[in-house]
User: What shape does this take?
Amino acid sequence: MSSKKDESIIALRIFFQKGYDSTSINDIISECQISKGGLYYHFKNKEKIFIEAIDYLFEELEKYGKSLFIETKNTKNIIYSYFNSLTDISNILKEILGSKNIKMENFYMLITNAFTKFPSIKEKYIKLNEAIQKLLINTLKSAQHNGEIKCSIDCNTISFMINIIVEGFFIHHSTIKEFEVKENCEKIFHYIWNGISIEKSKI
Assistant: This one.
């Protein structure tokens, strides 16, 4: 018998490809190669499968987000990694879903649809976002204390601004195909860093 986690990952891949509404229980059963009873042993209905699958996805994204703030990185590299996280997220999705054919627009559509249908998923995303933003605020405050960035800046405002820019990049990347992610992220990173740092320099 397949595990609950395995079934969640397989279901996530199908939801990613077809969307929530177009995915049927039979689609998941067929892909998992189990009986309907076997699937219902772990999940009450399609809604529960979807929520479990999205929960798993958020757990993996949270692990990745927290990994950006490891102590061995300096503030400049942390913010640089944060701006370039779109490329990494694409690779993480490929690894989670076990597929190289990943379209970011599918991810964006799936998540926005999930927010509309399931308020609990939106609440979990907000908490995840707040946790990552808190790490960024603390990183900026430590950088101020260490003399890496200007004492005159408001860390909460800069953190919020960085977060909004990165999320905006994500939406833009998900909806517009002709978009040089790495090049544009690096340009905006340098504008931000040169505005807040004590010494203006490039990576």
User: Anything to note?
Assistant: The chain has one domain: 54-196. The radius of gyration is 19 Å. The CA atoms of residues 150 and 195 lie 9 Å apart. The mean pLDDT is 86.
